[in-house]
Amino acid sequence: MFLLPPQSAWAQSSPQAQLQEGDRAFAQKKYRQAQQIYQQVLEKNNLSSAQVLLRLAYINEVQEQYPETLYYLSLYYRQKPHPQVLKHLEALALQAKLKGYETNEWELALAYYYQYQERLIWGLSTLGALGFVILLYFRGRGFPVSSWLGWGLVLFLLAGFVLTIFSKQAPEVIIGQNQTYLMDAPTAAAQVVGILDKGHKLPIVGQEDVWYRLQWEDRAVFVHRANLKLIP
Predict the structure, then answer these.
(1) Domains contained in the chain, number
(2) Residue 1: what pLDDT?
(3) Is the C-alpha dihedral spanning 179, 41, 64, 213 positive or negative?
(4) Which of 23, 34, 112, 200 has the fewest CB neighbours in a 10 Å radius?
């Protein structure tokens, strides 16, 4: 059993001080205390540092709370994408018999891209700008300019455009409640086409008021947002 500081003192302390207290509890392997502190900081201050998310994932995995582990690890991946994180998500989901975490070569390649996307886009932008300056300089001086330089500049701009398209990961949701109904329309009066327990991950297709339109087993379904955890 553990006790948090008095509520008034806790509320007045800064988020950084609260996180430090959680870190001390984590270092002492007081995982339940650290978990409660981290979760309160995340909920009240909307802070989601990669370190805190990874520690929450670890704490829940130690307790074999796999749906929560997958949730925090998925949030961590959004901040720190890496192929090993995807593989661990897939392994945990397989162990817990949860769907939506299967990976393929394309997703692993995207993970490498997400890991270095800022450097790639910066490098291409720099080279494109340099090529544009060289092109203007030669034309201003009246020198003949090879068509290859112009086409090269176009290719760099096109590559930058393509990389920008893939720079944002598509939002997903994780089922947050057991016995969650999958509906065939965005209304409580719609037909139930399936029931899922918490932990399954689904891609977002759209949203209608409080209902999310999701993709599940090659069909569109609707789930009330109160039953979902968003992976933005």
Answers:
(1) 3
(2) 45
(3) positive
(4) 112
User: What is the Cα–Cα distance from 158 to 165, expressed in whole angstroms?
Assistant: 11
Indicate whether 37 and 81 sit together in one domain.
yes
Beta-strand (E) ranges in the chain?
172-175, 180-183, 192-196, 201-208, 211-216, 219-224, 228-231
Q: Which CATH number is 52's domain given?
A: 1.25.40.10
Q: Tell me, yes or no, whether 32 and 56 share the same domain.
A: yes
Element (H, E) at 156: helix 147-165
Question: Is pLDDT of 8 > 60?
Answer: no
Pairing of strands 228-231, 219-224: unpaired
pTM of the full predicted structure?
0.78
Verify that 19 and 68 share a domain, yes or no. yes
* Assigned domain for 2 exists: no
* 54 and 26 Cβ atoms separated by less than 8 Å: no
